[in-house]
């Protein structure tokens, strides 16, 4: 039987989670986001006749974000992930999305090869750092109040790189969620957002200008995290940050992009 692609149903959950337990050396996150993805929609399975692969899509502005691509290890190298992605790209074109994006660990060579074969290009490389919350009242930052101070095109929301449109930007400014420091050298800017999938997790998009300015932002974020009782602070940045005993470089990701039309 030719494998078929369809919308995921909640009844697929246990079968899917069965093959998404030990995907990576650290396990997998699908079990934590499954319910959320089902309610959000855009979750697809490939079945044969049981579910043997998944991927999730998220549409915003003129782009589709593709995440959570998983193929049961017994069924790999049969073109199934490629089939799923091509299927999603077709739907995306129907929805007039111009670009498709996905995020791939720079060391995940099989996935990078798959993306390259599907004509995705490395658009940017991002570093993921974890920062420990810590009370620290010594920081000098400013809150962005208008669009001129928010010169960032995309921001990370729940590990999706989304367009920072005017409305979102103004709303984040109103909430004091866009901070910057331009005291010494090039400006550093950070955008703070809560993870929608994980409790007490702060996700920060950081554009690092000078090291001094960035360290001011990091001190503020650390203190903010401690005062608001966040357990985890995840920083995503294109730049390399100065390591401290509370800032750890975890992994680097390629942001893969494809023009769909
Ligand atoms: C990456 C993954 C989704 C690929 O699924 P798949 O169904 O096996 O991929 P496809 O059969 O469509 O592969 C397409 C092409 O990608 C490349 N590729 C895929 N897996 C590869 C591997 N293990 N080694 C080398 N190349 C590989 C090949 O070029 C392949 O074409 P070919 O088989 O004709 O040589 C699958 O290995 C998987 O689930 N891995 C764990 C989860 C993961 O890494 N997900 C992606 C996170 S971004």
How many helix segments? Answer: 6
Q: Could you report the average pLDDT, rounded to the nearest whole number?
A: 95
Q: Which residues sit in consecutive blocks of at least 5 with pLDDT less than 50?
A: none
Principal-axis shape equals: elongated
Could you please describe the fold and organization of this structure?
The chain has two domains: 4-97, 3-Layer(aba) Sandwich (Aminopeptidase), CATH 3.40.630; 128-254. It has six helices and 14 strands. It has helices at 13-19, 30-40, 80-94, 109-117, 166-174, 211-227; strands at 4-7, 43-47, 51-60, 63-71, 99-105, 121-131, 142-143, 154-157, 160-163, 178-181, 188-194, 201-207, 232-237, 247-259. 33% of the residues are buried. The mean pLDDT is 95. The chain binds coenzyme A.
Topology (SSEs and partners):
Layout: E1 4-7, H1 13-19, H2 30-40, E2 43-47, E3 51-60, E4 63-71, H3 80-94, E5 99-105, H4 109-117, E6 121-131, E7 142-143, E8 154-157, E9 160-163, H5 166-174, E10 178-181, E11 188-194, E12 201-207, H6 211-227, E13 232-237, E14 247-259
Parallel strand pairs: 4-5, 12-13
Antiparallel strand pairs: 1-2, 2-3, 3-4, 5-14, 6-13, 6-14, 7-10, 8-9, 10-11, 11-12
Bound molecules: coenzyme A.
The site of coenzyme A has 19 residues, from strand 4, helix 3, strand 5 and helix 4.
Produce a short descriptive summary.
By secondary structure, the protein is of the alpha+beta class.
Feature tags:
2 domains, Aminopeptidase, 36% strand, alpha+beta, 261 residues
């Amino acid at each position: 039987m030719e494998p078929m692609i369809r919308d995921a149903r909640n009844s697929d959950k246990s079968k899917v989670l069965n093959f998404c337990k030990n995907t990576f050396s650290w396990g997998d996150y699908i079990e934590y986001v499954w319910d959320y993805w089902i309610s959000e929609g855009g979750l697809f399975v490939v079945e044969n006749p049981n579910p043997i692969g998944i991927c999730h899509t998220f549409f915003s502005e003129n782009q589709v974000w593709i995440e959570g691509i998983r193929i049961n290890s017994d069924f790999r190298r049969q073109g199934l992930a490629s089939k799923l992605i091509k299927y999603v790209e077709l739907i995306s074109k129907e929805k007039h999305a111009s670009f498709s994006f996905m995020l791939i660990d720079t060391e995940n060579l099989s996935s990078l090869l798959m993306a390259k074969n599907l004509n995705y290009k490395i658009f940017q490389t991002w570093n993921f750092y974890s920062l420990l919350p810590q009370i620290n009242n010594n920081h000098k930052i400013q809150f962005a109040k208008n669009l001129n101070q928010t010169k960032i095109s995309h921001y990370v929301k729940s590990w999706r790189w989304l367009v920072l449109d005017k409305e979102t930007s103004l709303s984040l400014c109103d909430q004091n969620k866009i901070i910057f420091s331009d005291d010494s050298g090039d400006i550093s800017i950070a955008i703070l957002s809560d993870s929608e999938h994980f409790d007490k997790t702060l996700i920060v998009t950081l554009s690092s200008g000078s090291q001094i300015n960035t360290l001011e932002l990091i001190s503020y974020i650390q203190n903010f995290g401690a005062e608001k009782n966040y357990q985890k602070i995840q920083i995503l940045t294109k730049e390399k940050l100065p390591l401290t005993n509370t800032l750890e470089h975890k992994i680097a990701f390629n942001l893969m992009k494809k023009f769909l039309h």
